[in-house]
Amino acid sequence: MQSTKVSTPAKMRAADIAYDAIESMIVTLKLKPGAPIVESELIEITGLGRTPLREALMRMSSNGLIVQLPRRGLIVKDIEAAEHVTLIETRRVIEKLIASSAARRATPQLRQDILSCGEKMVEAANHGKLDDFMAADQALDHVVHEACRNPSAVAAVIPLIIKCRRFWYAYQHEGDMHEAARCHMLLAQGIANGNEEAAASGADNLMDYLESYTRKVING
């Protein structure tokens, strides 16, 4: 496994850097479901110390990304497609709240940034660039979360988003990047226009797509 060392802002805590690096490996399936968590390997890959790494792993355990098994230690949690339907059911409620709050509270600069992220998702989908699509998707989440100014809602939805993102990587052959980009763009436009109803509807449409996609995976 190649190193994921990157330059990061000095103000970021080492544990946050470790969390982001390991989360990326789990989401993109570089650390596959069922894979053991080997601290020494992660220290070498990330270039970070044991203390921040362990703090990051504790957060991942609480978020359900990794699990502790008897005699096996920490492993990456399996992807359970059937469980994913109820995850989206929960995410739908929170995403609608976040979207409407962002439409109401976003600054002009954040509205512009949100629209730009949506446009980048559409462009990536048009060129079939999955990595660019997922990067723009993650950037959109970050700016929408900043705009909504509801930290408790953001804290609740982040573990769900991470699991959805990993699900997409695992079953991308069943997905439709163009439709996903269209749904994200509707959400972005509703927030950018300050239209709470349109923003909430955009979030609803996105969850409809994710649910339909999940059921397609389950039904084979």
From TrEMBL:
- State a single Pfam family of this protein: FCD
Q: What are the entry keywords?
A: DNA-binding, Transcription, Transcription regulation
- KW DNA-binding (keyword) present: yes
Name recorded for this polypeptide = GntR family transcriptional regulator
Q: Which PROSITE patterns match?
A: HTH_GNTR
Among SMART domains, the record links this protein to: FCD, HTH_GNTR
Question: What stretch or stretches form a coiled coil here?
Answer: none
Q: Ranges for the HTH gntR-type domain?
A: 12-79
Q: Tell whether Transcription is among the UniProt keywords.
A: yes
Domain of life of the source: Bacteria
